[in-house]
Structures are given as structure tokens and as C-alpha cells.
Specification:
The chain is mainly β. It is 0% helix and 60% strand. The chain contains no helices and five strands. The termini are far apart.
């Protein structure tokens, strides 16, 4: 059995927008953890925090907008 480690992530996202609020997705190892709208005002930074359990070895973190 591979070693598993629980990691805590804190990511700051933001952008400049007018009428259409951006939607983002967070993926770890190509598994979507969540998809949500940015709640911060245009030009402000929103912090997203979450935990993920990862097996030892290479892993990927993707942020889709």
C-alpha cells in the first residue's frame, strides 16, 4: 500500500470582470473537487482552502477558469 499524505491548500484567485462572474474548477489528479463562482468583487483576491489526500509520487493540481 502506498503512503498517503493529507495536504492543505490555500490558493488566491481573482480577476477583473464586469457583468459575467467567472466560474472556476479545482482538480487534483484530474478529479474535480469543486466548481464555483468567484465571490470576490472585481479586482479583489478570493482565497480558496481545502484538504486533499495524495499518494506518494507525482500529483497534479489544475485550476480551470
Amino acid at each position: 500500500m502506498a503512503d498517503v499524505e493529507k495536504l492543505h491548500f490555500k490558493i488566491g484567485i481573482g480577476g477583473t470582470y464586469w457583468k459575467k462572474v467567472p466560474i472556476y474548477s479545482i482538480l487534483v489528479n484530474d478529479k474535480t473537487l469543486f466548481t464555483q463562482e468567484i465571490t470576490a468583487a472585481s479586482g479583489e483576491t478570493q482565497f480558496i482552502e481545502f484538504d486533499a489526500e495524495l499518494e506518494e509520487g507525482p500529483a497534479t493540481l489544475k485550476i480551470r477558469l
